[in-house]
Amino acid sequence: MKKLYFNYIESFKGLTKEIWYLALISLVNRAGTMVIPFLSLYLKNDLGFTINEISWVFVFFGIGSVIGSWLGGKLTDAIGFYKVMVISLFITGLNFIALQYISSFLGLCIGILITMSIADTFRPAIFVAIKAYSTQENQTRSVGLLRLAINAGMGIGPTLAGLFIVLKGYNLLFWIDGLTCIVAISLFYYLVKSPTTTPSQTRERYNNLYKNIVYKDLTFWIHSVICFLFGMAFFQLFTTLPLYYDEIFHLNEFKIGIILFMNVAIIVVFEMPLLNYLEKRLIPITKHIIMSCLLLTASFFILYENFWIGTLIISIILMTLSEMLGFPYTNKFALQRAKEGLEGSYMAMYAMSFSLAHIFSPKFGLDIVDLYGYQVNWLVTGGYGVLAVILSYWLHHRIKQNL
């Protein structure tokens, strides 16, 4: 037990203070993110939307995410990640507060579109911040620490949110979401200073650097498609899975929050030691990506059996293991592939892969559930994972050939 404790502590050593501050604001922000995991239930139970209407709201959620990710990459390369992060999160906080006052289908679609277009400019910026504030040796653990903070916050958030919904309803959650965005970015502005070197100054040292080189990188395109397929499967966790828990297994919001908390608890306890262990083994990044896709595929195929509640537990464990490998190592691959001075463009394309999945995953998933039922959706979702595994092997082969 003592050895396990020291191994856990060791996994945090060597990280910069800026990464710790980024983790702190991520914890504060995500602890307040209470609406998103329950958005499908809010739309269905509180606003009375149909399954088709819910799917379209998530389409606009995804479109906004794509716009925000693209815009965030452009702005990060133009003015730097620091300004993008501060402006984005502050305005996002105000938007979350305003969303509670919109109840019409069209109004909510537009409100979600605008909110996500602003909110997801933050994503490429924070990815570039990780590269700026970490070293090559501790980059994966830096990503892991931020994910730990985000997941700890997400564990606190949905668990409390389920209780608040049962006791007070949904409106309080929008206030908490908005105010924690503002508090988080205020902490960031106070604790972390803006870097002195701008992206344009970095690019001046690379006169022959073609600014759209990311779009001609076939290997990075393959990686982006893998991330898209991974997202197509994984984002079912926030759309069809809560409805499945509710409709098939008759779990209330608090019990659903407990299942989601299992996902977070495993990550908080085991992800950093796991990443620390794997980093010492010098295993190629692409092998971790292959394994993550295999685990994600299995987590959905197992849901085809719906007669035992234990399948929900097994599925969430497999999905969590997949997440613990998938997100840190796809992120690390993108950071290492990014050219100096154009990190924003590379990380925007990385973020857009998941943003596109935000568009299609809920729409396809909810439409399949509406027309054919949950079990068919789990087979289709598992199919995304199979395609991702095949492409991951191709990616691994190209990297071995230095392509």
Word description of this protein:
- By secondary structure, the chain is an all-alpha fold.
- It has one domain: Growth Hormone, Chain: A, CATH 1.20.1250.
- It has 17 helices and no strands.
- It has helices at residues 2-10, 17-31, 39-46, 51-79, 81-99, 105-119, 122-133, 139-168, 171-191, 199-203, 218-234, 240-247, 253-281, 285-301, 310-337, 343-372, 374-400.
- Helix 4 (51-79) packs parallel to helix 6 and helix 11 (218-234) packs parallel to helix 16.
- The longest helix has 30 residues, at 139-168.
- The termini are far apart.
Question: What attributes does this structure have?
Answer:
403 residues, mainly alpha, Growth Hormone, Chain: A, 17 helices, 79% helix, globular, transmembrane, transmembrane transporter activity, cell membrane, MFS_dom, MFS_Transporters
Question: What order do the helices and strands come in, and which of them pair?
Answer:
Blueprint: H1 2-10, H2 17-31, H3 39-46, H4 51-79, H5 81-99, H6 105-119, H7 122-133, H8 139-168, H9 171-191, H10 199-203, H11 218-234, H12 240-247, H13 253-281, H14 285-301, H15 310-337, H16 343-372, H17 374-400
Helix pairs in contact: 1-13, 2-8, 2-9, 4-5, 4-6, 4-7, 4-16, 5-6, 5-7, 5-9, 7-16, 8-13, 8-15, 11-15, 11-16, 11-17, 13-15, 14-15, 14-17, 15-16, 16-17
Keywords: Cell membrane, Membrane, Transmembrane, Transmembrane helix, Transport
GO cellular component, one term: plasma membrane
Subcellular location: Cell membrane
